Amino acid sequence: MHSNQGQAAAPAPESVKILVAGGFGVGKTTLVASVSEIPPLSTEETLTEASTDIDDLTGIEGKTTTTVAFDFGRITIQRDELVLYLFGTPGQDRFWFMWNELAQGAVGAIVLVDTRRLQTSFAAVDFFERRSIPIVVGINHFPDSHWYEPDEIRAAMAIPESVPVIVCDARNRRSCKQMLITLFEHALARVPG
Amino acid sequence: MAGQEARWYDAEAGPLVRPFTMTGGRTTPATPMLDITTQVVTVPAVGERINLTPEGQAIVEWCHHALPVAELAAHLDVPLTVVKVVISDLIERGYVVVRNPTKTALQDPGADLLKRVLKGVRAL
């Protein structure tokens, strides 16, 4: 009858999300952990491989499920008002389909690059460029990796001049904070008008 | 009672996979458009909440302060698909309300929103 006419629910903050992409082991979770106010949480999506004919009941018996895990963290920008979420994308290539759901509504992305394996991050740059999602490329140097200048990486990966490419350290909070600042400055500069 | 059974296990459900037993075999939430960052908030109860699953009970208890879909899935240690079904049920029964990411954030984040976030990350 009037069962829901009690007090109003607490206010829900506005949420904004960005993605942290790059190949497996490039430092995505490390970056999220460096800036998140909570230890990174892990969640998973279970996906059922679509059978060729969904109306065929015999196909249901043969369907298989795949589990994709991804990490995320949170930064409260204004208490009860605005929260920023950082989602690390699944690193393996075969989980690309998961990126579409994660990228839905994302205001930007950080693409981390391991200079020893450029090709894994190349695909990520392409993915966001195609969807007009603003990105910043962060070169995460590892102790045993050769030092490259940002311009060398830009040339090697054919990254457009408009995309910021910076050297970073995913373990360092200040460095990660700088990447976030660069990303949002870049996203803001792209807003028309 | 028999009708309740029939609703939970229809022919299309196929063999039940373990995580989906808590959603009655359904893998598609009745309420569409729950994003991973959709905020869930409990509606303060007047009467008793009945027939809640343990997961539903936990969500209702936790969401007196807003929590997003992804965090609920992580805390419950269940796949996102499952938590979305549970949340949809809670919405239908009036136990929780949700706030989706604003349309501007989904399609074209306004300069104002980006400025607010930028100010926030500078202050980190």
Can you give the mean pLDDT of chain B? 80
Give the topology string of chain B: H per helix, E per strand. HEHEHHEHH
SSE sequence of chain A, one letter per element: EHEHEEHEHEHEH
Q: Please, how many domains of chain A?
A: 1
- Structural class computed from helices and strand pairing of chain B: mainly alpha
Number of separate structural domains of chain B: 1
| Alpha plus pi helix count of chain B | 6
Question: Nutshell version of this structure?
Answer:
Chain A is about 30% helix and about 25% strand. Chain A is an alpha/beta fold. The termini of chain A are far apart.
Give keywords.
heterodimer, A: 193 residues, alpha/beta, Rossmann fold, seven-stranded mixed beta sheet, 27% strand, disordered N terminus, B: 124 residues, mainly alpha, three-stranded antiparallel beta sheet, 3 strands, elongated
Structure write-up:
The complex is a heterodimer of chains A (193) and B (124). Chain A is an alpha/beta fold and 193 residues long. Chain A has a single domain, classed as P-loop containing nucleotide triphosphate hydrolases (Rossmann fold, 3-Layer(aba) Sandwich), CATH 3.40.50.300. In chain A, 31% of the residues lie in helices and 27% in strands. Chain A has a seven-stranded mixed β-sheet with strand order 2-3-4-1-5-6-7, with helices on both faces. Chain A is globular, with a radius of gyration of 19 Å. Chain B has 124 residues and is mainly alpha-helical. Chain B has one domain (26-122). Chain B has six helices and three strands; from the N terminus they run H-E-H-E-H-H-E-H-H. Chain B has a three-stranded antiparallel β-sheet with strand order 2-1-3. The longest helix of chain B is centred in the C-terminal third of the chain and has 13 residues, at 80-92. Chain B is elongated. At the A-B interface, strand 1, strand 2, helix 2, strand 3 and strand 4 of A face strand 1, helix 3, helix 4, strand 3 and helix 5 of B.
